[in-house]
Write a structure and sequence with these properties.
alpha+beta, outer membrane lipoprotein receptor (LolB), chain A
């Protein structure tokens, strides 16, 4: 009994220490979720080997990228490391979409901003807090006891409204609410995340450490809400289709 009491006290002390500390750095390995391209192409396009090869390179690349989450007590920044000047045709989906995004979060005022390049402009997109539902499922990841949370992400494009299931495994043993992209709000650090098109897996966790990256709140760009940005993209895609089809 004394042994278990000691373990619990040590765990509580560790949790309190982490939550009160200043700076943490977490590196995530990010890969693209494979999809069956043939389901989304017409019979004619499925027979186009050049098209199917290029689409498979984009959506089914085995390339793994590294993203960095930098946290202070109240702010965080999330961005891709080792950006290289390579042709767009050689980038996979994660590089193409997430590579030019920078996520800034502020806990004090519940602000989540994403700076991104799209439609020939620079946007600062504000996100609402993601709505998580906690489950009773548990498993161990990197010796941390993790719990499962699920949610739904809504995506709007020219073909309509689509909903994707989001799944996260987080550990209350590291009570950090910051997360990849806009998926913050859980009572613990996310170690694994299945997003709309991507997998995130924490591969290096540095707690109570020195950070060398300055966390910057995006200020230069067109400020819009997430819903407004979706509408802009949808209208742009519809205008493109009318012009070239």
């Amino acid at each position: 009994m004394k042994t278990w009491i000691t373990i619990v006290l040590l765990l509580c002390s560790y949790t309190q220490l982490v939550s009160q500390s200043g700076n943490h750095v977490i590196l995530y390995e990010v890969s693209t979720k494979p999809i069956d391209i043939s389901k989304y192409l017409s019979k004619e396009n499925n027979n186009n080997k050049v098209l199917t090869t290029n689409l498979n390179k984009l959506f089914n690349s085995s390339k793994k990228l590294t993203f960095k989450l930098v946290c202070t007590p109240n702010e965080s920044g999330f961005f891709m490391l080792n950006k290289m000047d390579i042709p767009t045709s050689k980038k996979n989906l994660a590089e193409l979409v997430l590579g030019n995004e920078y996520y800034y979060t502020n806990l004090k005022n519940s602000t989540i901003l994403c700076k991104k390049e799209a439609l020939g402009e620079t946007f600062i997109v504000s996100h609402d807090m993601f709505k998580w539902k906690l489950t009773q499922e548990e498993k161990r990841i990197q010796n941390y006891l993790c719990k499962k949370a699920i949610g739904t992400k809504r995506i709007v494009n020219s073909k309509g409204v689509f909903k994707f299931k989001i799944e996260a495994w987080f550990t209350p043993e590291i009570p950090i609410s910051f997360a990849p992209l806009d998926y913050m709000g859980l009572p613990g650090l996310i170690l694994e995340l299945t997003g709309t098109h991507y997998y995130f897996k924490a591969k290096k966790i540095e707690l109570n450490t020195t950070i060398h990256d300055k966390i910057k709140k995006p200020t230069s760009g067109i400020t819009v809400s997430y819903n407004e940005f979706e509408t802009l993209v949808k209208n742009s895609m519809q205008a493109y289709k009318k012009k070239y089809h």
